[in-house]
C-alpha cells in the first residue's frame, strides 16, 4: 500500500508564506505526476498545482506568480511554496500522486489533507 503524509499547514496573516510538504511511502516503483488540490467550505475540490517527474508544471490561474510547486524524486516528496497568501486561499489542501505500485500497476492516492487558514 501507499501512504501520503502531509505537513506544513497552519494559520498565517494575509501576505504571509507557508510551505507544504508531502512524502509518499510504500511499495512504490515510480510516481508521475504529483500535485496539490484544495477545497474550501461549500466549494468543489480544485487543482492548485501539478508537476511531472521531468519538472513540467501546471498552476491554477488564481495562484500563478504566488505559488511554486517542486519535487524531490529521490525522496518521493512534493512541495508547495505559498507566498503572498490571501484570505481566499483558505482551504484544506490535499496531496495527490499517481503511483505505480510494485506488482499491481498505477493507482491514484490522496493524503489526509492539511488546513491552511489566512486571516485578513
Number of helices: 0
Helix-strand string? EEEEEEEEEEE
Mind telling me the C-alpha Rg? 14 Å
Q: What class do helices, strands and sheet pairing give?
A: mainly beta
Instruction: Please tell me the overall pLDDT.
Output: 95
Query: What is the percent of helical residues?
Result: under 10%
- Poorly predicted spans: none
What is the rounded distance between the termini?
41 Å
Strand content: over 45%
Shape: elongated
Main sheet specs = 7 strands, mixed
Tally the beta strands: 11
Annotate the secondary structure layout:
Elements: E1 2-7, E2 10-13, E3 18-26, E4 28-39, E5 46-51, E6 57-59, E7 67-72, E8 77-82, E9 91-101, E10 105-110, E11 114-119
Parallel strand pairs: 2-11
Antiparallel strand pairs: 1-3, 3-8, 4-5, 4-9, 5-6, 7-8, 9-10, 9-11
Keywords:
single chain, 120 residues, mainly beta, four-stranded antiparallel β-sheet, 11 strands
Folded structure, characterized:
The chain has 120 residues and is mostly beta strands. It has no helices and eleven strands. The strands form two sheets. Strands 2, 4, 5, 6, 9, 10 and 11 form a seven-stranded mixed β-sheet that branches. A four-stranded antiparallel β-sheet has the order 1-3-8-7, with no helix packed on it. The chain is elongated, with a radius of gyration of 14 Å. The model has no long low-confidence stretch (mean pLDDT 95).
